[in-house]
């Protein structure tokens, strides 16, 4: 059964907003897109997502996402040129710098556990 946050965000994103203004939605997009890359190329490396838990700002999360994209988003990731992936990536890069606090880290940990992927569901 799909997580409520995931279902609500998926519905929002199907309308293709140009930006995300909610930190929790943005975190779900980042973690979920990164997980899709890792899961489709090297599923035994899913624990790399835990790096997001060390970030103190959204800029740090964007940098970690870029690192994950460099490791897992190239060879073997067939969604790289998919319009859904390109759209999600644009949302990730257009978020302002904000502090990541403890409740956000709890959300990140929860989002890591979601096994459905926006890149396939939009």
What does this structure look like?
With 122 residues, the chain is an all-alpha fold. The chain has one domain. The chain is built from six helices and no strands. It starts with a helix and ends with a helix. The mean pLDDT is 92.
The proportion of residues forming helix, as a percent range, comes to 55-70%
What gross morphology would you assign? Answer: globular
Task: Give the helix tally.
Answer: 6
- Span between N and C termini? 17 Å
Mean pLDDT: 92
What proportion of the residues form beta strands (DSSP E)? under 5%
Number of domains: 1
Low-confidence stretches are none
Structural class: mainly alpha
* Record field, number of beta strands: 0
- SSE topology string: HHHHHH
Largest sheet: none
Report the radius of gyration as a whole number of Å: 13 Å
List its traits.
single chain; 122 residues; mainly alpha; 6 helices; globular
Short structural description:
This protein has helices at residues 4-14, 23-41, 58-72, 83-93, 102-112, 118-121. It is mostly helical. It is globular, with a radius of gyration of 13 Å.
What order do the helices and strands come in, and which of them pair?
Elements: H1 4-14, H2 23-41, H3 58-72, H4 83-93, H5 102-112, H6 118-121
Helix pairs in contact: 2-3, 2-4, 2-5
């Amino acid at each position: 059964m799909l997580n409520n946050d995931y279902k609500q965000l998926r519905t929002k994103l199907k309308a293709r907003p140009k930006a995300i203004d909610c930190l929790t939605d943005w975190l779900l997009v980042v973690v979920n897109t990164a997980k899709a890359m890792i899961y489709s190329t090297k599923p035994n490396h899913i624990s790399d997502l835990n790096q997001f838990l060390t970030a103190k700002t959204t800029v740090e999360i964007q940098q970690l996402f870029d690192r994950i994209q460099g490791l897992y988003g190239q060879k073997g990731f067939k969604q790289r040129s998919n319009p859904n992936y390109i759209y999600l990536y644009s949302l990730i890069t257009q978020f302002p710098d904000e502090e990541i606090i403890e409740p956000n880290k709890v959300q990140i940990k929860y989002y890591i556990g979601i096994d459905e992927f926006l890149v396939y569901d939009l």
